[in-house]
Amino acid sequence: MKAIKELWTQPLTQWIFKTFYYLAILVALLWLYGFKDTNTSTFIYNEF
Q1: What is the pLDDT of residue 41?
Q2: What is the pLDDT of residue 10?
Q3: d(CA 25, CA 31)
Q4: Would you say residue 47 lies in a domain?
Q5: Which residue of 6, 18, 26, 48 lies most exposed, with the fewest beta carbons within 10 A?
Q6: Secondary structure string (H, E, C) spanning the chain
Q7: pTM for the predicted model, two decimal places
């Protein structure tokens, strides 16, 4: 456990972890909202 704490206190380790953490959030948001096909939705002004 002491080795893990010593490794975590290094700035490079924290930077790498935070980079992957925020990249995972960004990929998850793109996966949830980015892959919608715009042609599948109904056009709002069809009746005019």
Answers
A1: 58
A2: 93
A3: 10
A4: no
A5: 48
A6: CHHHHHHHCCHHHHHHHHHHHHHHHHHHHHHHHCCCCCCCCCCCCCCC
A7: 0.61
Segment 1-48, tens digit of pLDDT: 888 889 889 999 999 999 999 999 999 988 888 766 555 556 666 665
Distance CA 39, CA 25 (A): 27
The answer to the question of residue 6 being in a domain is yes
Domain interval for residue 9: 2-32
> pLDDT at position 22, please?
98
Q: What is the number of domains present in the chain?
A: 1
d(CA 6, CA 12): 12
C-alpha–C-alpha distance, residues 8 and 16, integer Å: 11
Is residue 28 situated within a structural domain?
yes
